[in-house]
Each structure stands twice: as C-alpha cells, then as structure tokens.
Amino acid sequence: MKQSSCGLDFGTSNSTLGVMHANKPSLVQLEGDYPNLPSAIFFNYDDEQTYFGREALEEYIGGVDGRLMRSLKSVLGTSLMNETTQLKRRRVGFADIIAEFVFHLKKTAEAKTGTTLSQVVVGRPAHFVDDDDAADDEAQNQLEAIIKSAGFAEVQFQFEPIAAAFDYEMTAGSHKELAFIVDIGGGTADFSVIRTGGDRANSDRSDDILATYGVHVGGTDIDRILAVEKIMPLLGYHSKLKGKGLPAPSWLFNDLATWHRINALYSHALRTQVKQMMLEAEQPLLLKRLANVLENKKGHYLLNCAETMKVDLTDAERAHQEFDIGAEDFSIDVDRTEFAAMLESWLAAISGAVTKTLALAAVPITDIATVFLTGGTTLSPPVRELLQQRFNTSQIVIGDSLGSVGLGLTLAASRRFR
C-alpha cells in the first residue's frame, strides 16, 4: 500500500485528518459524510464494543450501559495522565484511551484513502497548560508518544493558529499583509500574528510569524459556565443544608459541569453522601434531582444539553431546553443578553489574550489587515461581537470553523515530508 503523510487535528471537541488530493489538502470523511469526528469514545458494557464520535454520543444518550469519555485532550499535561480509570472489569490508562481514539482516526482514513499513513503533522495549542512550561513540554511529549503508539512512524508538530494561517493563505491571494489568526476550539483559544503572502514553499516560515499566544479557555468552558449558572442551581447548587446553614459542597457541582471529571462522580460513596445531604437540605427536591443524575449517570447528558443551548444561541435570540433525568422533568430558558453576561469573565480572558498577542508582535492593531476566524467557538455571537469591536478597522474573514486547522496541518505535512 502506498505510503503517505497527513495532517491531524486532535481537538478537545472535534477531530479532523487531512491528506493531499490533486495537490490540494482535503479532509477525510471520518464518519459517514462528515469530515470531522466528535472527540468522544464510548465503551459499551452490553456488547463490549467501542464506539467513536457521533455513534458514541448516540449510544450514551440512548441509555446504553457503558462509559462515555469526552474532552480527553484536556488531561494532557495533568496528573490524570499518570492514572487509570475503570472500564467495567479492567482499569485503563488515559494515554491508552487517547491512543485508541487516534488509532481509529488513522485506520478509518487509511481505509478511505487506500494509503498507509506513516508521517503526520499534529496540531498543538500555543499552551497545553497555562503558565507552566515544564507541564506544557510534558503534554507535547505525552501526545507524541501516543501518536506513535497509534502507528505513526514520524510525528511533527505545528501550532494550530499557524496551521489556520496556512489555510487562509490558500484563498488570500499573493499580496502581503498582516493577518491576525483567531482559533478558539473546545479547550483552548490560540492567536497568531503572521505575514501572509510570503514564500509559501518554505516549510519553516518562522520569519513570517511575529507572535503566537494562547490561553486555556474554550467552548467546553462555556458549556461549564452555562451548566453552573443555569442547571446546577436546579440540582441544589447554592442551596442550604439545615443546622449550620452551609451550602451543599460547590466542588461537586463544578466537577459535574466539567466534561472530563464527570465519570469520577459515579461512586457508591458519593451517592450515599448525597442521600444524606437530602435529609439535611432545606430544599430536598433539588438534592433528589442530583441523586437521580448520579444514580442514572446523566452527567454527560446535562452537559450535552448545555452544549445544545450554546449552539442554539448562535442563530436564535433565545434557547429553550427540556431535561429528563429519570425523575421530575424541568426546563431552562436563556437569551443572548443573559448568555453574554454569563461570559463576561470568559470574554475578558479572550480580550486580554488578543492584547497580549499584539504586544508580543509589537504591532498596532490598526496594522492588522485581516482577522481570520476558525474553531467552532468563534461562531458564538458574543465572541464575534468582541472581535469586531476590537478589530474595527480590519477585514473579518470566516474560515472553516472545524476544518481550517486540519487543512493547514495537511499542507504543512506535504511541505515537510516531501
């Protein structure tokens, strides 16, 4: 079978893999007609099969007994990478679970393209871990080892916003300009200032990159904020316990609103603790809902509902969501004004990162000719409004929200592995 190179965007929320076709980068259809695969894996305890992407989410939402894992990229560089998690009768390391997901991407792409993919350029955020260079280096080393264990012989890395810039250049024409690249995905927000229209045959391009910066905030944080602000109070968050009048422990609700921490809450000891809290609660009905969520393993379902509301607010002024947790049903409404107010601190972090990136590049904002947007979270209206206000003299160009990075990585791979 023919040997080939590829670009791999292993994302917090979605992943893509691209190859060169007719001298142009092209994303492989990884699930049906979709060129992206949700970064989700489900271990079905009934048929003992493993499901990926949309199938994984459908299995989980359908109530099949098993274990859903999402946002696995978020554990890179953390202590969780040294731990194992229970999958029915066996314990498995997080590195092995990520490797299984990457191997599925590779195997699917090879079957679709009829080639052996041995060389890969992998996207990485500006920072896997904020303000900790050692942990950041360790995260890249961990990911490199995982990619190799999945069957790739040669692995190189490229910053994700730089890859997005390469994709932008394919349609930007040959004129030179300063572009500000915004890549906000599920887990990170990354920014670059780059001179476009340079020597595109050069695989280095380091002289054209004026600055790269990022912060560890993204779309999954918005899911968490929505869940904490709107859903968790209906499960007992901030509710008082009798006696000392203390609130129910906040850590429980914050973990229940964080994709990669949910599975650790499904323990007999915690369910027993929550049942005891029900006896002490001023509003026991709320804690009863929480007990049902834990008993029926509905944590990922709640966050999926929060994610749905976030997506609905992209095109609608108001989002409505019904919840079925196996007990009393309830519903939530959120409008865009309330949504933007919830994201005030999150948006401030994005704005601060923009300022930092421009300072590192040592260019005034008025010198930026084009702002290129990619990453699913850039579709959110509060994000668009913030960027349009900051770059009010620049052209805003909207790229492929889920595919630009993968296409740019594929182009980088074709240049590096000639």
Helix percent band? 40-55%
Task: Kindly estimate the percentage of residues that lie in beta strands according to DSSP.
Answer: 15-25%
CATH class of the largest domain: Alpha Beta
Task: Please give the domain count.
Answer: 3
Q: What is the CATH superfamily classification of the largest domain?
A: ATPase, nucleotide binding domain
Class by SSE composition: alpha+beta
Topology at a glance:
Elements: E1 2-9, E2 14-21, E3 24-27, E4 37-38, E5 40-44, E6 50-52, H1 53-61, E7 66-70, E8 84-87, E9 90-93, H2 94-113, E10 115-124, H3 133-149, E11 154-159, H4 160-172, E12 177-184, E13 189-196, E14 209-215, H5 219-231, H6 250-256, H7 268-280, H8 284-295, H9 299-315, E15 318-323, E16 330-335, H10 336-342, H11 344-361, E17 370-374, H12 381-390, E18 395-398, H13 404-416
Parallel strand pairs: 1-10, 10-11, 12-17, 17-18
Antiparallel strand pairs: 1-2, 2-3, 2-4, 5-6, 5-7, 8-9, 12-13, 13-14, 15-16
